[in-house]
Amino acid sequence: MGNNFLKVGKWWVLLATLAVSACTTSPTGRSQFLFMPEEQLNEMGAQTFAQMRDAEKTESGTTTSRYVACVAAAITRGVDTPYMWDLSLFDSEQVNAFALPGGKIGVYKGLLNVATTQDQLAAVIGHEVAHVLAQHGNERMSLEYASQTGQQLLGAIAQNSEKGQQIMGLLGVGMQFGVAMPFSRAQESEADIMGLELMAQAGFDPSQAVVLWQNMSAAGGAGVPEILSTHPSDAHRIKNLQAHMSVANDLYLKARQNGSVPYCKG
Prior knowledge:
The chain has helices spanning 2-22, 38-55, 63-76, 118-133, 136-157, 162-201, 207-220, 234-243, 245-257, and strands at residues 23-25, 31-33, 58-59, 86-90, 97-100, 104-108. The chain is of the alpha+beta class. It has a domain at 28-135 and 184-257. Strand 5 and strand 6 (104-108) form a beta hairpin. It is globular, with a radius of gyration of 21 Å. The relative contact order is 0.13.
């Protein structure tokens, strides 16, 4: 009994230490829990990106690859980071894009069937760059670490208890649908707004972000219910973008007045 209480006490101390040392705020002021070292995440991002480029066919030196690189360069040019941004165009019909810690950007050619203009592509790339700037990868890994530690804590309390193990199993489901998924949706919404500002600051028309998600909605059909998705619904996304459009338009007009007029041809 005494040993069990000692184990529980140690876990509580660890959790309290994590909570105090890792709490911060995102670029939009949202509370964040960041525990993982940024250098380690950047290294993981670089390794993952290299593996993906080895495993999948990429395209370079073509009109299309130069077009995508042009849009990405315009978005990242004004972003202050300690690393160089690196982009690859994957020769796949997937409608997808991503960005990894350390500034690794991947765009799939299939995305260009939905993001049909430079401004719409800028909305996607801006969104993915925002994920990196807001350290969303760190957040997800930190949350996973904390949730596993919490489950180990319950295990120390309820070890050798069949009912306790069942509770732990239910907690795993609760973490997935009660915390992890809404948390990811909050990240996606944050990246939408940050990405909208990034594209506007680069001189891309922010109103095209709404058109992009209208295209996405048309291409994706009904999709899954938002409550069971890690991403906001297209309608919810569009509503949030429209609510922030006046701010983005001000940034856009200022950028154009200052000579930021990107011209990327696909």
